[in-house]
Design goal:
The chain is α/β, with parallel strands linked by helices. It contains eleven helices and seven strands. Helices cover 53% and strands 16% of the residues.
Amino acid sequence: MKKISIIVPVYYNEDNLLPLYADLKEKVLDPLQHRYQYEIVMVDDGSKDRSFEVMNNLSSIDEHIKIYKLSRNFGEHSALLAGLNVCTGDLAVRKAADLQEPSEMILDMLEEYEKGNSVILAVREGREESEGQKFFSNLYAYLMRKFALSNMPKGGFDSFMIDRQVIDTLIQMNEKNTSLMAQVLWCGFPTSKIGYVRKKREIGTSKWTLSKKIKLVLDSLLGFSYFPIRCILMIGAASFVISFIWSIVLIVQRLMNIITVEGYTTIIILILFAFSIIMGSLGILGEYIWRMFDATRNRPPFIFDHRTKEEMTKSK
């Protein structure tokens, strides 16, 4: 019987955890008891409320609940990665502690997993939230799809289910200042999607601040796209072309005595070409820096999706 690990990052969720467990028990764990073993891995991401105390109480109720506490707040993605490092399941699913995702979607994800998919994404088809939240979420998904990962779902996603091969690959990367969601997409394993409507938060308040959202955007774009650097190089090239054309115009105007100020033409031409040379140089340096940055990361140069039985035996 296969084992599923339900990983729950926890941050200021003292009032959510008991209802969360009850919801999981009723809608997921009981229906699956004859098909899958389970463990719930709760990782406290440096909460200063009673979250860890509630986690302790839950672990005494259910021996399948494993609890961990990080030394400080590292961010949800780090807490999720910590959960992946310690989970023992054949597959793992990320479950938010805020009850904004329907627990029963785990059953839908399992159906897709049983069809042979290694990754199942829970894609947001709607949100019972403010227009500001919707705007940021859609903007993030658009930027990622346009400039970094073309396989980013249009509605974006928060939760996913991955098999053991994907879990081990993510652990192997061991990257900082990155997006775990983007890493899942980058791996390229067989992927399926299910849709869900993100509910309005009923208990507690979100700690997903604007600064954390901005950091996620920067980490995702800088970690998975060279467009910002390439943009500098393109600006430099465009500036050089414009400078060349405008220099010809200025020279013609000077010869025709349209420009009568002494030294004006020379100064403007020098400024235009200096700007284009600086931007071009920054772009070229950026290309080298990007390649060095890419080389220092632990992302594997290739990932096996399938190997022969003989090779799998040798690796054990």
